[in-house]
Amino acid sequence: MLKKVNLEGKRALITGAGGGIGRAIALRLAEDGMKLALTGRDYSKLVRTAALTGRPLDMLVLPADLTKQKDVDDIFHILGGHFKGLDVLVNNAGMALNKPFEETTMDEYDRIMAINARAPFELCKRSLPLLRQSECPTIVNIGSVVAHKGYMQQSAYAASKHALLGMTKALAKEVAPEGIRVHMLSPGGVYTDMVKIARPDLSEEGMIAPEEVAELAAWLIEHRSNGVIDEIQLHRVGKEPFL
Ligand SMILES: NC(=O)c1ccc[n+]([C@@H]2O[C@H](COP(=O)([O-])OP(=O)(O)OC[C@H]3O[C@@H](n4cnc5c(N)ncnc54)[C@H](OP(=O)(O)O)[C@@H]3O)[C@@H](O)[C@H]2O)c1
Prior knowledge:
This protein is of the alpha/beta class. The chain has a single domain (3-234), classed as Rossmann fold (3-Layer(aba) Sandwich), CATH 3.40.50. Helices cover 41% and strands 16% of the residues. It has a seven-stranded parallel sheet, with helices on both faces. Strands 1-8 form a two-stranded antiparallel ribbon. It binds NADP nicotinamide-adenine-dinucleotide phosphate. The site of NADP nicotinamide-adenine-dinucleotide phosphate has 30 residues, from helix 1 and helix 6.
């Protein structure tokens, strides 16, 4: 039986919420009446997201660099205290890197793994005690089609998203018996700053809109049934996805 969850007043933490896909997810979940903790490095971009929801007073703006332990500790201190718990975690923050394999430095490799794979691992780990007290505990990890394939000049990015997919699948099995749902949403090229910087040759036409990804994330969070969805891939029509 497919059950629709009433998300009014439920609480979500969204990473990378200052723009792109993260902002679109925030705006979509705000429409459902959720209270949101919005995190990212850039305070002003987070404040803008909060304002765009039309309910800035229900939004918590938490500037943080997810590769810094103190920043992560501060987020969970506030979630467990002032925010009074957590129902949904959206691991969206991430970075891309377009570079030939041999030119990719080990510092770049460590950085991309830290934000795309290690940070979501830690955030899942830290969220579980809070999610266990929720009626609709859900984690949505924003992966990528590169979690499945290899694309030229994306070895480090692909490694990080493959790692995220592996973690998602294993964790989903581990916590499913407790009613905690863990999903990965893997889009192809979405028209955001990430793409505008990495591929300035591409135009908006034919690209996936951040709102399309947000709609799927909202669906995953809103619906519960006996069937479990582990991953959704979203490809551009007629294109070999590049991201
Ligand atoms: N765009 C695409 O084509 C595409 C396709 C597949 C998957 N994705 C994935 O979608 C997710 C969102 O990307 P996007 O396209 O929306 O790009 P974006 O606009 O560049 O968003 C990335 C977000 O990650 C945050 N972030 C990066 N490093 C961080 C750090 N160390 N600590 C905290 N936050 C950090 C940024 O925050 P600040 O701005 O505050 O620094 C930014 O808001 C990423 O995981 C990306 O890999 C994107």
